[in-house]
Design a protein that fits this description.
InterPro entries: DUF4004. The chain is built from 12 helices and 6 strands. By secondary structure, it is an alpha+beta fold. It folds into 2 domains: about 70 residues, Orthogonal Bundle (Multidrug-efflux Transporter Regulator, Chain: A, Domain 2); about 190 residues, no CATH class. The longest helix is centred in the C-terminal third of the chain and has 29 residues. The chain starts with a strand and ends in a 7-residue tail after the last helix.
Length: about 260
């Protein structure tokens, strides 16, 4: 379902200038701006649910994050930071009982961001669809060969079943899926929406890992003025972190896992 630019501005209360500034800052993907013919000539339309969710998110968080931080978190590009088992244990959305099974199936010690995202999604599906451990693990087994090649989160994960067997398809956002009618689609999940939630909720973890990877922490340790600068900014950081936590809670409430088509 689409929404026109005029309807969007009226419904969200933002200005024309804000909309296009957020586009320039990469907060709103350029491909969401779709020119179509109308009775007035050419008019711009957007995917309704996605643009409304995105604008609400920006409005809630723009006072506590810089536009650069928001753009980085909202980007469908996956981070190149690797995650180990201890990192996975910090992410409460990953089912702890499934972790050993996920480890066995992927058979590696360092996990990509796409791996982590898939663990979160499968954990959520296990809960919502009441899947057992074997059914959940089988979904990962069927998808694992594709995860290495995925460098972006801009996909839809489609779950369908036949009797007690569950299967998955990963599709580009705008690509139609023509499924054998003997199968029933039970879930469609925008991976980028889930990614946004995880990136915001665990932004400190991801940013810390990225800084450590780039050697920023060692630079600070060797700088004699680093401790003074750190101490002077600590109070301000604590205040801003409390604001971020409030907004993370709000953010997680208004975003949906399931795609509405």
């Amino acid at each position: 379902m689409l929404i026109s630019k005029k309807e969007l501005l009226a419904q969200t209360g933002i200005s024309y200038g804000q909309l296009y500034r957020w586009k320039r800052e990469r907060l709103i993907p350029e491909e969401w701006f779709m020119k179509q013919s109308s009775y007035t000539g050419q008019e711009t339309f957007f995917p309704k649910e996605q643009i409304l969710n995105r604008i609400k998110m920006i409005q809630e968080l723009k006072d506590n994050y810089s536009l650069e931080e928001l753009a980085k978190m909202l980007s469908p590009e996956s981070t190149e930071v690797g995650f180990d088992l201890e990192d996975l244990k910090e992410i409460e959305e990953i089912n702890s009982d499934m972790l050993p099974i996920f480890q066995t199936i992927l058979d590696k010690k360092t996990y990509s961001y796409i791996d982590v995202l898939m663990f979160v999604i499968l954990s959520k599906l296990k809960e919502e669809l009441n899947l057992n451990e074997k059914q959940t693990g089988t979904l990962l087994e069927g998808l694992k060969m594709h995860l290495e090649g995925m460098k972006t989160t801009d996909y839809i994960l489609i779950i369908f079943n036949q009797e007690t067997n569950y299967f998955a398809v990963i599709s580009q956002e705008q690509s139609p899926i023509y499924l054998d009618t003997r199968f029933e689609i039970v879930k469609k999940i925008r991976m980028n929406e889930v990614s946004n939630q995880i990136k915001f909720k665990y932004s400190k973890v991801f940013n810390s890992d990225m800084e450590n990877k780039n050697g920023d922490s060692s630079k600070g340790a060797s700088d004699p003025s680093y401790s003074d600068r750190q101490a002077s900014s600590e109070g301000e950081n604590n205040r801003s972190n409390s604001k971020k936590k409030e907004n993370e809670d709000i953010f997680l409430k208004f975003n949906n896992w399931e795609v509405r088509l």
